[in-house]
Amino acid sequence: MEAAFNYTETDGAITGPLRTPKNSAINAGAGSIHDQATAQKLGFRGGTVAGSLHMEQFPPLLIEALGPDWLTTGGMSLYFRYATTDGEPVQASANRPENQEGDQQIEIWMDDPDGHRICDGTASIGAPDQNSTVRKRLESIPEATDLRILANVEVGKTGPMVPTKITQEALDRRLAVITEPLKAYGDASIFGHKIMTPALQVQIMRPGETALLPRDGNYGVGLFGAIELQAINGPALVDYDYETFAKVLAVGETPKTEYYYYQSILVDPASGTNIMSMIMMIRFMKASSKLWQ
To answer: According to a count of CB atoms within 10 Å of the terminal CB, is the N or C end of the chain lower?
Structure first.
């Protein structure tokens, strides 16, 4: 199952192999940014590969750069800049840390062979990184002046705790197409359970989103704009019963989109321990919303 991981290194930056991630939601149907016709209508080249899937190329690099403890106390914070389509090649890179002691932060990025920057950001190990790429962007969001899609989204609103779980079947589906397998995804002996890939970490922390923004026909097409994953007492385990809740952090706009940021916390209900956190930025395309037509 696990492909060999080879990297090159130049001036302190390590780069992984060229990979071709699949658009695993290509059959999601009309109204999804992953659908070919929907995406092309909005000006994209085709149905897009979710940013959470691109995140799965980084863990081998981050373990190489920051050590194996990255799986238990590591973070990855990315802003997505250029959407790719099914099977388009991309390559992940990371800087090595300047020192090997204490909490550390490094820069990470992904490019395609044509020089497009797919995403960039930071990764860290140790205490949750308060100076991550996504957190810094949160500090500089200008005040929105014409919100229509997200006019009723209240900053600071916190949703209820809801149960959440990733099953073995969900893991099997990801491992069938994942670009960079890790042994711990498929070997329960390392942590007592198999652990989640980054895309599954995003999936398990999204259920709280529904209470913050109940979707209806006016919202139009949404897509990920940025994602931060932070292991607090990780890793998150497969086939384990968790709970999660979410809180709205910010709302903003661009000429083509309205967007909001929220934070989700993954909790082990048996111990009350926080396992992971996620900050998610979701964009809604104005051109796809009835409220802008």
So the answer is: C
Type of residue at 190:
I
What is the distance between the alpha carbons of residues 167 and 241, in angstroms, rounded to a whole number? 10
Angle at 231 between CA 110 and CA 221, to 5 degrees: 55
Rounded to the nearest 10 degrees, how much is the dihedral formed by the CA atoms of 162, 168, 169, 172? 130
Q: Provide the pLDDT confidence category of residue 24 given band limits of 50, 70 and 90.
A: low
Going by C-alpha positions, the residue among 211, 223, 234, 233 that lies closest to residue 286 is 223
Q: How many Cβ atoms sit within 10 Å of the Cβ of residue 95?
A: 18
**Domains of the chain by range and CATH?**
8-139+157-292 (3.10.129.10)
What's the helix, strand, coil split of the chain in %, to 5? 20, 30, 50
Question: Distance of alpha carbon 185 from its chain centroid, rounded?
Answer: 17
DSSP state of 288: G
Residue (of 280, 278, 255, 283) closest to 267 by Cα position: 278
pLDDT in tens, 104-143: 999 999 999 999 999 999 999 999 999 999 999 999 999 9
Is residue 137 exposed (0-12), middle (13-18) or buried (19+ Cβ within 10 Å)?
buried
pLDDT tens sequence across 172-217: 999 999 999 999 999 999 999 999 999 999 999 999 998 888 777 7
